[in-house]
Design a protein that fits this description.
Blueprint (H helix, E strand, L loop, with lengths): L15 H28 L1 H18 L13 H17 L1 H12 L5 H41 L12 H17 L8 H24 L11 E2 L11 E4 L4 E6 L2 E5 L13 H19 L1 H11 L4 H6 L1 H15 L5 H42 L5
Helix pairs in contact: 1-3, 1-4, 2-3, 2-5, 5-8, 5-9, 5-12, 9-12, 11-12
């Protein structure tokens, strides 16, 4: 049975058992909301994964990298599916869970405290939404592009077939062949080399003959298309300039062959690891965006005077730059400069709000002290 609430918490009296029953009821409602949200996110989990993966996919295509992720285990895609569904359900049902918590604790708050708590909850929801939007559309693309460009910046080693290193490798290969295949029958390395040279000479002669006879190109040239042909034929091959991929039409479907970048290191990204990095980045930005909320609480409670923080503004700004190093998983220049600047702006906003609540608190205390001085107690 629901207990009728009173606006004055002094008139709202419940036994310990009633409190436990009330808490149990709100917890059950919160879990039911979480279950409904989980059903929704499990249905759209693959769509959510594609949405989170979009910045990485776009960056891979722009940098001419394979626009794919690679799972290192057979169970990896399943854990990714369930993890995204659970995290999405937690975010989707978050307002409902907070609402149930609010219904439980609001009965013990005075009217002024309820207004303050309502303002803080609304400010927290607004800051969280802004943080997630800024993460997805600003920080995440900048981080992904920087990390991919840094990964592919390793140059390929430059060696020639006549270098001393190549000669040593040939000698070691011959020694290993004699050691591992003593008395082996069949085509020897020398015979294989002669056959390869003979085939190369024949191919070169044919290419030279073709070129001399008026051929424009001795090799195969792939057609460059900015989109896939509407009605490809079986075995047709073309290069899609929009996705930077070689497409082959086989068995009624288009197979994609992604060329790799001319780098010694080619990123093979695990989608679960990528999701964890995105989660850490979003969590760090959300924490930074809650600086005004924390400062409002400090102003309401009177724990810190805003004037004290204004005097230590330089220390706070330095702390913003230091904290950004630990709150962002990547160390790109954009995140390490933009995030501290955003934190600085949020700190200045928090100072304004904090000063407002701090002044109201001091005025209220002054009024209460004046009333007590005008009407002293008879004790």
């Amino acid at each position: 049975m629901a207990v009728r609430r009173a606006k004055d918490p002094d008139q709202y009296v419940m036994s310990f058992g009633d409190h436990i029953e009330e808490l149990r009821r709100h917890l059950i409602l919160a879990l039911l909301g979480m279950a409904v949200a989980l059903c929704v996110t499990m249905w759209y989990s693959r769509t959510i994964v594609a949405f989170i993966y979009a910045p990485l996919y776009t960056a891979q295509r722009m940098l001419h990298l394979p626009a794919h992720t690679f799972s290192q285990s057979t169970i990896g895609p399943l854990t990714l599916y369930l993890g995204v569904a659970f995290k999405g359900a937690l975010i989707l049902s978050g307002p409902w869970i907070l609402y149930q918590m609010w219904l439980f604790i609001s009965s013990g708050l005075y009217e002024a405290e309820r207004k303050a708590a309502t303002f803080l909850v609304g400010l927290s929801v607004l800051m969280t939404s802004l943080a997630l939007l800024l993460t997805y559309y600003v920080f995440l693309p900048a981080t992904v592009v920087f990390m991919l460009m840094f990964t592919t910046s390793y140059p390929l080693p430059h060696t020639s077939n006549n270098s001393s290193l190549a000669n040593v490798i040939r000698m070691m290969a011959k020694m290993n062949e004699r050691t591992l295949l003593p008395g082996a029958e069949g085509v020897t390395t020398q015979t294989a080399n002669q056959a390869a040279n003979q085939a190369g000479n024949q191919a070169g002669t044919s290419a030279a003959t073709h070129a001399a006879s008026g051929g424009s190109n001795a090799g195969m040239v792939l057609p460059l298309l900015d989109h896939d042909p509407p009605n490809p034929v079986e075995g047709q091959i073309w290069f899609n300039t929009d996705s930077n991929e070689i497409h082959v039409f086989e068995d009624g479907r288009v197979l994609m062959l992604s060329p790799t970048a001319p780098s010694m290191v080619v990123p093979l990204i695990d989608p679960k690891v990528y999701l964890d990095e995105v989660t850490l980045l979003a969590l760090g930005v959300v924490i930074v965006f809650h600086v005004p909320v924390v400062m409002c609480v400090l102003g309401m409670t009177g724990m810190i005077n805003p004037a004290t923080l204004r005097k230590k503004r330089k220390i706070v700004i330095f702390g913003c730059f230091v904290a950004s190093v630990f709150l962002t998983p990547s160390q790109d220049i954009f995140s390490n400069v933009a995030l501290p600047l955003v934190a600085w702006g949020l700190f200045e906003l928090g100072l304004v709000l904090m000063g407002r609540f701090y002044r109201k608190r001091m005025q209220r205390i002054a009024r209460e002290e004046a009333e007590e001085a005008a009407h002293p107690s008879e004790d």
